[in-house]
Amino acid sequence: ILILGKQSKTKENRIKIKDITPSDARITLEGRASNCEKRLTKSEKVLLIFELFDGTGTIVCKSFTVQEEADEIVSKIEQANTIKLIGKANLDAYAGDVTVIANTIYQ
């Protein structure tokens, strides 16, 4: 079930959180989301921030959405046992840590 983004037909490059490097282009992660929060940006978009745990480690994931959909997306993420996300790993300048920007999230 699609929670955020567009259906993707690309081949999955599923990896474990412990194996993520900042140079990983397009990755697929699967795990349990926790600590989901939302923040309004200056451009009126909503930044969703949550942690994903897959048994090998925990990583901070971020995603952008519009205000009208934010509450529903947060609710779906919190209610899902596990989620699968497709995104890009990079070094977060604000946090100084590796994070994943999720473009697509599935339940």
Topology, element by element:
Blueprint: E1 2-4, E2 27-40, E3 45-53, E4 58-66, H1 67-79, E5 83-92, E6 97-106
Parallel strand pairs: 4-6
Antiparallel strand pairs: 1-6, 2-3, 2-5, 3-4, 5-6
Summarize the structure.
Helix content is 12%, strand content 51%.
Notes on the protein architecture:
There is one protein chain. The chain has 107 residues and is mainly beta. It is 12% helix and 51% strand. The protein contains one helix and six strands; from the N terminus they run E-E-E-E-H-E-E. A five-stranded mixed beta barrel has the order 2-3-4-6-5. Strand 3 (45-53) and strand 4 form a beta hairpin. The longest helix has 13 residues, at 67-79. It is globular and about 35 Å long. 21% of the residues are buried. The mean pLDDT is 91.
Main sheet overview: 5 strands, mixed, barrel
Query: Counting H and I runs of at least 4 residues, what is the number of helices?
Result: 1
Overall outline:
globular
Order of helices and strands: EEEEHEE
Low-confidence stretches: none
Structural class of the helix and strand makeup? mainly beta
Distance between the termini: 5 Å
Give the spatial strand order of the biggest sheet: 2-3-4-6-5
**Gyration radius, in Å:** 13 Å
| Residues in helices, as a percent range | 10-25%
Mean pLDDT: 91
Q: Find the count of extended strands (DSSP E, 2+ residues).
A: 6
User: Which percent band covers the strand fraction?
Assistant: over 45%
Q: What keyword list fits this structure?
A:
five-stranded mixed barrel, mainly beta, globular, single chain, 6 strands, 107 residues, 1 helix
